[in-house]
Amino acid sequence: MTGRVRSILLLISCLVVSIQSENCHFAQNYNLNQLLNDAAAQDSFLMSASYWEGKFATDRIGINYASGLTYDGTSIDYTTGLPHPGGLHEFSAASKEAVHVSLLALAIEGKSKYAVNFFQSSMQAVHWNGTVQEYVIDQLTRKIGSYEQFNQQYPGFGGFLPWYALNDSGVQLLNGWASKVPALDNGELIWGLIAVVQVLTENGGYPTLLGRYTRQVTKMARNGLTIFYDGAGSGTVRCVAQIRNVDILPTRSNYYRDGECVLNDPYEGELFVFFVDFFSDWTNYAPGDKDKVWQNKRPQLQPATLHSSFGPITVERGWMHSSHEKWKYMELPYFDIPINNAVFLNGERARSQFSFTNSYPGLFASAANVSQPGNYNPNYISATGIQEIASAHVDTNALVTPYGAYPLLLHPTTRPYGIVWYASMLQGSKMQGPQGSTESVSIQGDLISPINTWDTKITSVLAFSGGIIDITRRYIQQTGHYIRFATVVATEWGRVFGEDNLSGSNIAFALPKASVPQKLPMFTGCTSKK
Ligand SMILES: *[C@@H]1O[C@H](CO)[C@@H](O)[C@H](O)[C@H]1NC(C)=O
Ligand SMILES: *[C@@H]1O[C@H](CO)[C@@H](O)[C@H](O)[C@H]1NC(C)=O
Ligand SMILES: *[C@@H]1O[C@H](CO)[C@@H](O)[C@H](O)[C@H]1NC(C)=O
Ligand SMILES: *[C@@H]1O[C@H](CO)[C@@H](O)[C@H](O)[C@H]1NC(C)=O
Predict the structure, then answer these.
(1) pLDDT of residue 22
(2) pLDDT band at 341 (very low <50, low <70, confident <90, very high)
(3) What is the C-alpha separation between 5 and 11, in angstroms, rounded?
(4) Which InterPro entries did the record assign (predicted)?
């Protein structure tokens, strides 16, 4: 590229940034048909989305800047959309860290301009003078420092994070989680940390930081089975490990299973199982234990059929078939395995056809409920999804959430459909504000959930940035685990779904036929904060 072309491009991108910062209601500027078909419109839409979502990853909203760690989120004012005083969720978990750290890895790598743009937007809040790369490195440095401090203070957690409380001094123990730690959320975090290790290795410019992230991952690999494996011969991983003494270094007798739950789901929980499968030392357990974990998971992987108006669609049965269950697809290269890819795509056919057929103006995923103005503490609705293809009871289809679209946004084949569904929800009343998208909206458009969280907002950014699957693929290839990964996925999905010949795989992905009714005035806080 010549210098002149580069400076013209720079000029154009500056203009784009200043146009974007005018108005947080950018989704209204797009027509959905154009978004389905026009690559330039898709790109400018995603640039605006990543810009406004970036305003969430700022101090005392989505992160604690001093410690580099995430807050779960914040309540927002029902009128302005700005953070509601006293509404900061002063706690978080490894799952939110996973999204943050994954985006940081993508921004270092630099291939996703949306991930870069996200932090370019965030860094304006602290008047960052350096480059976005320097900002991202600074965030990563603060974060690993906070992890190290926590590890030193509470060695019994073995490098894993519980749900935690957070302030400028870093991680504090949270009531109810002072002596226990979950596997699933940490499995999500681990692959984000691995992505950081991979991109810092490839970058070569930050050897000290690389060493610190590598030691964190190594610690988690060393302690993963000690803390979470349910004993020699069991073939089960604990969903949550109870810790007898958080002040001592991990030994097996210091941990036991919390309740009955074992991590045997074919959804997000698998991220942890793959991590210990690849990187933990199984020699102290019974021979065959590693394979037994996969065998014990088998009963949960089941086919199910959605009877759409275009015919039956064979999918993998969901727990609720909430989009949240597809999280693992953002982190490991499952799409490489043809049968798993075909099952995933059928799941998204079903998801989009279900909402289309029922004229729902959006897609379903676990989220905070909508509430009346003045109520800043709505209940959390886990049980939303698609009853016909779920194994658990689905309570409601009365509210939709933007991140219902993230699986569609993630897969390259379905991304244009994902953009349309996502845009359609953002076009709803009060669904765009000064920190980007809102948690959820009632299908009548009369109520919102006045909340911003990592789960419902930034999963979409990670998904339309492509997830970290290209980075983690390189890592598991280079560490010699790719064949094991591909073999396990092909075996487990192949035994349930056969070869790549699922009913419904010729049915189209559906687009919304209803929009969220415009019943509420827009947020007024859009341009008041720079
Ligand atoms: C950014 O630059 C301004 C003016 O040069 C300076 O006053 C300020 O301290 C710098 N901020 C940071 C965070 O370095
Ligand atoms: C953070 O919380 C801990 C525990 O409540 C407290 O001891 C510490 O002083 C707090 N730090 C700040 C900077 O508020
Ligand atoms: C969600 O909140 C609305 C409005 O307050 C209420 O009517 C509804 O029953 C709640 N739904 C669930 C499943 O809790
Ligand atoms: C694929 O599925 C169709 C319809 O279910 C069936 O007729 C056909 O025989 C299957 N083909 C193979 C190779 O299994």
Answers:
(1) 64
(2) very high
(3) 10
(4) SGL_GH162
Q: Dihedral of CA 437/440/443/445: which sign?
A: negative
Query: Which tens digits make up the pLDDT trace of 111-141?
Result: 999 999 999 999 999 999 999 999 999 999 9
**Relative orientation angle of helices 39-54 and 415-426, to the nearest 10 degrees:** 50
- In a mutational test of the pocket of ligand 4, which residue from 501, 503, 506, 507 has the highest number of ligand atoms less than 8 Å from its CB? 501
What is the rounded distance in angstroms from the CA atom of residue 275 to the CA atom of residue 265?
A: 15
Lowest mean pLDDT among 8-22, 173-187, 471-485, 496-510: 8-22
Residue 130 CA: which ligand is closest? 1
- Give buried/exposed letters for 377-407 (b at 16+ CB in 10 A, else e): ebeebeebbbbbbbeeebeebbbbbbbbbbb
Number of alpha carbons in the 13 Å side-chain half-sphere of residue 212: 15
Backbone angles phi and psi of 426, in degrees to 5: -65, -25
Cα–Cα distance for residue pair 218/147, rounded to 1 Å: 13
CA–CA dist 346, 307 (Å, integer): 12
State both tokens at 223.
Answer: 């302690």
Ligand in nearest proximity to the CA of 446: 3
- Average of per-residue pLDDT across 294-315: 98
Q: Is the pTM of this model over 0.70?
A: yes
Per residue in 145-176, pLDDT (tens digit) is: 999 999 999 999 999 999 999 999 999 999 99
Q: What is the reported pLDDT for 318?
A: 98
Which protein residue has the closest C-alpha to ligand 3 atom 5? 371
Candidate of 369, 376, 444, 451 to mutate for ligand 3, largest count of ligand atoms within 8 Å of Cβ: 369
Strands (E), 168-302: 170-173, 180-182, 240-243, 255-257
- Which residue has the least CA distance to atom 13 on ligand 4? 501
Q: What angle do CA 62, 66, 69 make, to 5 degrees?
A: 45
